[in-house]
Amino acid sequence: MEYRALTVSIENKIAQVTLNRPDALNTMNLDFWKELPTAIREIDADARARVIILASTGRHFTAGMDLGVFMNPKNISLQGDPGRSAENLRRLVLQLQATFNVLESVRIPVLAAIQGGCIGGGVDMVSAADCRYCTEDAFFCIKETDLGMTADLGTLQRLPHLIPQGMMRELAYTGAKLSAQRAKEIGLVNEVYPDHDSMLNAVRKIAADISKRSPLAIAGCKEMINYSRDHSVQDSLNYMAAWQSGMFRPEDMMKTFAAKAQNTDPDFEELHPIRPPFSQE
Amino acid sequence: MEYRALTVSIENKIAQVTLNRPDALNTMNLDFWKELPTAIREIDADARARVIILASTGRHFTAGMDLGVFMNPKNISLQGDPGRSAENLRRLVLQLQATFNVLESVRIPVLAAIQGGCIGGGVDMVSAADCRYCTEDAFFCIKETDLGMTADLGTLQRLPHLIPQGMMRELAYTGAKLSAQRAKEIGLVNEVYPDHDSMLNAVRKIAADISKRSPLAIAGCKEMINYSRDHSVQDSLNYMAAWQSGMFRPEDMMKTFAAKAQNTDPDFEELHPIRPPFSQE
Amino acid sequence: MEYRALTVSIENKIAQVTLNRPDALNTMNLDFWKELPTAIREIDADARARVIILASTGRHFTAGMDLGVFMNPKNISLQGDPGRSAENLRRLVLQLQATFNVLESVRIPVLAAIQGGCIGGGVDMVSAADCRYCTEDAFFCIKETDLGMTADLGTLQRLPHLIPQGMMRELAYTGAKLSAQRAKEIGLVNEVYPDHDSMLNAVRKIAADISKRSPLAIAGCKEMINYSRDHSVQDSLNYMAAWQSGMFRPEDMMKTFAAKAQNTDPDFEELHPIRPPFSQE
Amino acid sequence: MEYRALTVSIENKIAQVTLNRPDALNTMNLDFWKELPTAIREIDADARARVIILASTGRHFTAGMDLGVFMNPKNISLQGDPGRSAENLRRLVLQLQATFNVLESVRIPVLAAIQGGCIGGGVDMVSAADCRYCTEDAFFCIKETDLGMTADLGTLQRLPHLIPQGMMRELAYTGAKLSAQRAKEIGLVNEVYPDHDSMLNAVRKIAADISKRSPLAIAGCKEMINYSRDHSVQDSLNYMAAWQSGMFRPEDMMKTFAAKAQNTDPDFEELHPIRPPFSQE
Amino acid sequence: MEYRALTVSIENKIAQVTLNRPDALNTMNLDFWKELPTAIREIDADARARVIILASTGRHFTAGMDLGVFMNPKNISLQGDPGRSAENLRRLVLQLQATFNVLESVRIPVLAAIQGGCIGGGVDMVSAADCRYCTEDAFFCIKETDLGMTADLGTLQRLPHLIPQGMMRELAYTGAKLSAQRAKEIGLVNEVYPDHDSMLNAVRKIAADISKRSPLAIAGCKEMINYSRDHSVQDSLNYMAAWQSGMFRPEDMMKTFAAKAQNTDPDFEELHPIRPPFSQE
Amino acid sequence: MEYRALTVSIENKIAQVTLNRPDALNTMNLDFWKELPTAIREIDADARARVIILASTGRHFTAGMDLGVFMNPKNISLQGDPGRSAENLRRLVLQLQATFNVLESVRIPVLAAIQGGCIGGGVDMVSAADCRYCTEDAFFCIKETDLGMTADLGTLQRLPHLIPQGMMRELAYTGAKLSAQRAKEIGLVNEVYPDHDSMLNAVRKIAADISKRSPLAIAGCKEMINYSRDHSVQDSLNYMAAWQSGMFRPEDMMKTFAAKAQNTDPDFEELHPIRPPFSQE
């Protein structure tokens, strides 16, 4: 697939998906909404990459929603019978949410590398990533409050699990900017870097670390951490045991022992590609 | 779309999806797995029908899975690294489950009209329908137990909500046939009819009743009954209130008053068709 | 308090709350909405009765909502800013739901004795009662579907726990009448009686049975059955044990032994009245 | 282990655990509380039986708790600091509940064959079995209400999942006897038989059916039906897929095909015995 | 209403509720328990304020429960039948919990401004506020442990969602004082200020920021953050979409664009006042 | 019981359980897996200690699993029918998880004092403790990722509740070492100490603080904090009220008042020992 709002590459088992409309502040336009889930899902399905870096270009990570999309009455209309419009609006919100859900549901980790402003829909998006890293000049802003609406694509659902409740609420109610330094202190980002280049280098190093590990073990970690957020510890332990009954086999562990003995990296098999069932006809 | 394992029609706002391979006992072959979710989703998306009848042909509703599908090593392989095969198998099960989940997630009711045997995958399928009706010679059988495996496409997840737990367990553990009469007594089917024709006529009459009612009101009922099964009453009441804040507007009610005054059927607007977001450009 | 839509009495530890507007088909008018929760709560708070019979007068139990209430724009208005109207509508639904929730949250059982039609809001109401009994000519109807709206006061949240899912859905989608006989077969009512008088006599006998038992034991039963519907068995067992640590003391059991030895009814202490905290100053 | 309150046998892969104190109405005395969970767990751990019949002797299945146990102040004391006694009482209830939980948590089905009275603790017990069968003269009674206390060992937690809510509540509030016939109508028992012998013969036949099927497939069914009762359908489907990734392998299915071709019963491998981890040293 | 334990004011859409018994260390006496929920609910119902500051007077925010309230046997009595006293005690705890629940359930944010000691019931109370701010000399103490009891009004239920689990447990088990500085580090308070005046000024500035934003958007944020804490992300996203179907209309957004163009603050409509249903007659 | 992998002592109501195989880096060998849950449970059952310190010896807290245990085919075998091996593997994982669950389920707090490396299974273990303290040279490592497997004994289920999600995921995906200082910043440990001795002294002081408080109050705190992690705030408040109805009695509070008046420590009664029900025969 050809991408217009994104640049997509895979190298050394590391995929990078980059927002590439810096002149438009990487706003989320129609192309973006179509391409992001496609790109992420294809990378996962191909099983050639073991980790995804979600990056951007220019001064700001993203200014969020391209409001022009919503101003176009073809895209969102509240005309006609109001009940049916509401039913339509509900589905539109669910569809847009699904765009970011894919970051969470793919089998491989997604690392967001954030420079400058991460605004509105940008916060919804990076809240669904596995880990966040940023530059010193980065800032986060729940812009929706400033625009007279309630953020509806994940910020209010996922961010409360990432930062302390009190800060979460102040940021949501005021639309205030959260600085990079404070974002690290409260646990939103794992690390802050001096500039865009040093951040990308550091994130690539973390990605390289991940890419050398068993993709099956990593996929298990991601599934379990996702699951644990939403279930009781007892349910999560039980799910772990069922999972492990299928996924744990000693082959990968043997490879790590052999590799250590030979001072090399273990050569793990990739996950199976994802195909529609019975697609081979 | 052209269908091979199904016949699909829409008439008077009633869609009918019919399994049409009676000579093969309407087993679920590759075509079936591809076509069923497509057909159901398209009917919902088009918003021309307000109810779906899921029917079949020949002596038996369905004999369930076409085992040839699974015997083909291209379709399911447990070769290679066993952990990765297990990960692949898990996803295959989720994908096949999704086929039947669509009966539950569409906005309009699905009425299953069952003649003769409803076996194995057939039980998984009709458990996901809204209502079940059958002929006197119908029977239900959790065949998977007989084949040395655990049913995995919904029977053990949905049927316990449809019939008493004790009967559920006996049927699952023994693979015994459940007769039409007993199926009605324990609540699995709403009504039993003498033969295939009388059943279809009766089900079409119920479908016609549904098709005259406000599709928005019906969609709300389906969403709420689905939701209530899986949530506490308090959560469900709260969800109802949020839903109603958008969906309840007095227009449809006014139409019923006007229609009653004029002794006609009210002429309700259809639900909006479902389209990918922003697809109109 | 003086009641206008209801008659309220307490005799021999049995309270009876009777809808008393038979000429208006006992529709739920403004008085009803104000008085029902007040009456039920006061009976519980006083702790003089150990069980409540919810009955009605005339040919029909209730025709449901008095639509005039909603036609009055003072009571429900969707004018002005639509978002704020929706917020207001949501709260109205929650407030009306709370009217029926009280039947569930009081400490003592509520037995509904239903003659003739139990329609629309009537189904929402009796679904929140502990037990339902009816006359041969009784019928139940989810009328809201017929009026172009989704029932929103509990029918779709509680009734699916009372009757088989398939019947639940057919009744909701079609607005069809459910007969007394079929209501018993599918578990909605415990018993059907020839006429209003024989029903009331029978229900009073059941109420008398309840009123002779320890009100603390009964309150525990009600709390636990409510709780079990909405929680896992493991959570419910755990809650039971915590409850019992406070509520189980052998005094009531000793009284039953003593009474049996003397061939009398045990003389149990009433529950404490419910008062606002610290209100006695 | 030697049993005093029970008789335990295993024959043809069918275990039978029989209450053997008919002269004492099979009340649950100290021996019973110690022996039942031990017996059930050992049968499961040994993996020699594929199903358990829980039966009794004499005129009545069981009269429930031997109250002498509780009258002994050594067994239950509410002396001393009341808070600490309450903490102790809570744990006692949890411990007694655990006795019956084991019927649910073992890997193989438990079929209860009930003659005459099944009273008090008997209802708690059979509610935790997989299936219930009874004689024509059987009856069920939530006796605790009659004794001035709230049943606390599972009746109020599991029975509401087995019978309609309205009947559940009437039985709990009144302590009324539920007849065999009505028990079948409302789904509590699967079948009613003329007398004790015919019941045992029939239940043994069902057990024999179960014992010929793959014990791994049956164990999966039991785990899934247990799980589905307490979780959403979506969670249950997801758990099923994880389970199947480990447990589904085509060997057992192949055996059913081969057996059918040769007109014999398939010869399935038993489940592994349960041992403490690393116990073999 | 006249308040005795509180001072209540509304200015510029900012309400302030101030504990005004500094000489009694602002302990929670009878007046407090009656007045706090009334005051908070009335402010919400009136819809004249868009945010509430919860403040105090004197050297300490509050010393928690006025123990004299509980020493008075009229207020809490464990005399008489112990089971019934326990039932009464349970309800008393629920009633007192409800006092603080109201801080969470009102539609508008509550900002707690804490000077000096915040002790015992004070921690229960501020844990239910949206955001916490404090002075340098502030400290927090789960005093109940020191008094030989388990905190029961929310501290153990809400504080674990506000601070790391390990700190939560140490504070609960030891009753140790948590300093202002450490409280900020672990996320309990958003900011620490040199003294009472500078804190109140800063909190008023934050409140002013909130008060300029759309009250409907803010109410949506509060509802969603509350909801997300207690539900899975998937349930929360789904609830968000239903909510938005009713609450999102572009009017408020248009006002923000217009205001920005004119360099003014947007003039949003207030939320509707909360009235009992049908109360206007 | 004699312990080989552990040293167990109780002094001044403080129990200490110490890993005592420093030459083997305190790896978790067969003895460890048998002894740890036994030791912890016995301390709780005896009710002579009010708090447990979990400590270790030598340079490193623990290097995690003794891999020799798993290399022994007697302990874990994936031979034979793969489905049955998977069922066996699932139970093994559940059994090993149960070893650490006991740290959470005992009534008294467990304080982990960690020096040097806390690796693999060590992280699973200390995640189940109530509080964690460490030395400056301590570090934490989710070693399983490095060994090609998914950690399955609690790390992925409990650690996400202890530290920010973003850090959790990076640590799990990379197997990176987490330093003591960063562990404190992100809330994993409560405090960092210069060396092993100063840590143990400080932890003993905290334990002494706990041991002077009412063991019933502390047990209530632990139960509630455990419960709140896995349930909604509303469910948790409700559970609190039921608990308190049994456990709250003013005796302990009176003792604190009396002790304060006399400037002594209150002399609280111990919790009742835990015995099998009816064990006194």
Automatic annotation (TrEMBL), chains A, B, C, D, E, F:
UniProt keyword Secreted, yes or no: no
Keyword Zinc: no
Entry protein name: Enoyl-CoA hydratase
PANTHER family documented for this protein: ENOYL-COA HYDRATASE
Keyword annotations from UniProtKB, A to Z: Fatty acid metabolism, Isomerase, Lipid metabolism
One annotated GO molecular function: isomerase activity
Pathway participation: Lipid metabolism; fatty acid beta-oxidation
Similarity comment: family membership: Belongs to the enoyl-CoA hydratase/isomerase family.
GO biological process annotation, one example: fatty acid beta-oxidation
Pfam families for this protein: ECH_1
